[in-house]
Amino acid sequence: MKLHSSIKGLFAAALATASLGVAAQAIKLGFNGDISASPTAQSGQVALLGIQAAIEDINKSGGLLGRQLTLLVRDDQAQPPRSLQIMNELIDNEKVAAVFGPTLSGNALAWRHIPNEKKTPVIVPIAAGTAVTKAPGSNNFIFRVSMVDRDQVAGLMAYVKKNPGSKRVGFFAETSGYGLGGLKDSEEIAALHGIKPVIVEKFEARDTDMTSQLNKAKAAGVDTVVVWAQSVPIAHLLRSMEKLNYFPLVLASWAAGNDAFVQVAGKNLVSKPLFMTTVADENSGKNSELYRRLANKIPNASLYLFAAQGYDAVSLFAAAVRQAKSIDGVKVKEALESLQLPLEGYVKTYKVPFSASQHEALGSSDFRWVRWSDGRVVSYSDSVTSSLKASDYKK
């Protein structure tokens, strides 16, 4: 994937700042994520814009503890070994106070033991894999300000349970760690609702024709498809449905909100899936301020949510540093787990977002139902979504 021109400039500027060692007393922060290689690299690019915007604002207001912040940007190119190497480099060589990223959940799973062993906070503004923030006992330094796969699945399964038209459900998933993790969540949460899929089908992320799997679903009378995959394979699944003229209700992962989904699916198919996101209208309320500031750097408005999550991740870290009066990793972790003041972010207002046992700032009740319409991701509501309550989101 080619870097958006503005992201290239941001990447180059960040590297130049790092190489010059502009401020010896600056607090170093790291970004470790994919901004160039995978189908979801645009998510990393836009989250980076939000992270940088938050750092700029903090520095303009005097910095943290009287010190400026500087960001060291590292592109892991969607490669787990490279991502692991970068994490060691940022913590051991650069002595960063915190790391933001990654873009891909599989990369987090490759290195999550490192910040936990070295007591360096990580705040994840993109990757959604359920296991990313899970670590035994109190030795967990990984926090998240993003959607969580299991919470998304909880929403999709709640919809299936309450939708009168969902009688025969089929699960579709790509055979990546992301896809299989979402499938596992889907099967487990479906069981909590007493839902048993009539068919479970898999495909590789690079597959472009899923008519074989769909023919099985059609023969089984599947009226609702829950698909867990990256943006491009979701698009190819819909194109395969078009070949068969078979259009069951499609409930998808938030990857359907990526620009790559639109490019592959085309304008006639993009509105088919329902999915969930964290920011449904980038031009409303507080979000309009940040969106206007970054709009000319974001390839598609549907990606804005990653900027909001990136900005909020830095803001929560800054609040913890102020509360701890220190950038010591253990003290910042403890402050994150007991933040004393509400923080008005771009995704939501955070009131005690974390605890010692809970490192997710967002949950199912914070998500918004959306679909594509006229080239934009817009809020979606029907009799099912309007009836959902917190107790319906079983997980």
Describe the structure.
This protein has 395 residues and is α/β, with parallel strands linked by helices. It folds into 2 domains: 5-147 and 283-362, 3-Layer(aba) Sandwich (Rossmann fold); 150-277 and 368-392, 3-Layer(aba) Sandwich (Rossmann fold). It has 13 helices and 14 strands. It has helices at 5-20, 41-60, 80-93, 105-111, 113-118, 149-162, 177-192, 211-219, 231-244, 259-265, 287-294, 304-324, 329-336, and strands at residues 27-33, 69-75, 98-100, 122-124, 142-144, 169-174, 199-203, 224-228, 249-252, 273-277, 343-344, 349-350, 368-373, 376-379. A 7-stranded mixed sheet has the order 7-6-8-9-10-13-14, sandwiched between helices. Helix 9 (231-244) links the parallel strand 8 (224-228) and strand 9 (249-252). The two termini are 35 Å apart.
What are its keywords?
alpha/beta; 2 domains; 14 strands; 395 residues; Rossmann fold; seven-stranded mixed beta sheet
